[in-house]
Design goal:
This protein is of the alpha/beta class. Helix content is 39%, strand content 26%. α8 crosses α9.
């Protein structure tokens, strides 16, 4: 039985130490800024991106990872004798899954499994890590599919945004449209549900938004253990640190087995804007 190699994309933005511990390949999405083009997380990093965004006269746009990028990654792994499990950002948010499928078709092989996480950020990242851990322990590609399906059912992300402007402009707002045109000081809480960005609640301040995000996360986790938590932020580290402390304190001791802070990737930050904080979780794995 061939060993399974894991491929994901840059929107997961898994912290570097976990990337080193669990080996997987990353296909970068593209950031287009005027005449310049950047590979997400390769040519531009979050700090650099948000500094540039603060002074930009032209707003960036994004593009999916290309079929060519996937083809090169897949070819290299196939040449080393791997089966490939390729897990990516929701097909309702990006054409990245389609690019992966095109690359597989060009290579005319059947030992590449392409999986729609129906999510992004560390909700995708936790799915990647669950499969990567299994693959490192000798799981087959069929085993990886089953683990990914369970991880997908038990993971999610909720986030509070300062403004809906960026999501609205990028056409990614989904059910959050209901919040447009409401009070200017309204702080929407959004989630990725069934692959799309949908409304999960609304409050009047960011402090209340943080508390509401924790409350909703706990209700979704329920009694499933263990719990893994990633606090994600777009150039809002102090708020992320505060949220991490609060969420750890809100769960019984021992329930959370993994908790850390992760950046929002430049490509995702293009659509959320700066100041976003949120919780990605996975429970039961």
């Amino acid at each position: 039985m061939a060993q399974v190699a894991i491929v994901t994309d840059s929107t997961a933005y898994i912290p570097k130490d976990l990337q080193s511990e669990y080996k997987f390949q990353i296909a970068p999405l593209q950031l287009i800024w005027g005449e310049e083009q950047f590979r997400d997380g390769v040519d531009i990093q979050p700090v650099q991106f948000y500094e540039k965004l603060a002074h930009a006269e032209i707003m960036p746009s994004t593009s999916q990872a290309t079929p060519g990028a996937f083809k090169e990654i897949y070819k290299e792994l196939l040449s080393q004798g791997y089966d490939i499990f390729s897990i990516h950002i929701s097909s309702k948010l990006s054409g990245t899954i389609d690019s992966a499928q095109q690359a597989k078709a060009m290579l005319e092989v059947d030992n590449i499994e392409i999986f729609d996480s129906e999510n992004t950020g560390m909700a995708l990242g936790f799915q990647v890590l669950a499969v990567a851990r299994a693959a490192a322990n000798g799981a087959s590609i069929k085993d990886c599919v089953k683990i990914a399906q369970k991880a997908r059912e038990n993971s999610g992300v909720l986030f509070a945004v300062k403004t809906l402007e960026f999501l609205h402009r990028g056409g990614r707002i989904g059910g959050g449209q209901a919040f447009l045109g409401t009070m200017l000081n309204l702080k929407p809480i959004l989630e990725v549900r069934e692959g799309k960005i949908e409304a999960a609640g609304k409050v009047r301040t960011m402090n209340k938004a943080v508390d509401k995000v924790i409350e909703i996360t706990k209700s979704k986790v329920g009694n499933q253990l263990p719990v893994r938590i990633a606090i994600q932020h777009a150039n809002a580290l102090p708020a992320a640190q505060n949220l991490l402390e609060k969420v750890i304190q809100s769960f019984p001791e021992g329930d959370i087995v993994e908790a850390f802070i992760a950046d929002v990737s430049p490509v995702i930050g293009t659509h959320t804007g700066p100041g976003v904080v949120g919780i990605a979780y996975m429970a039961g794995l």
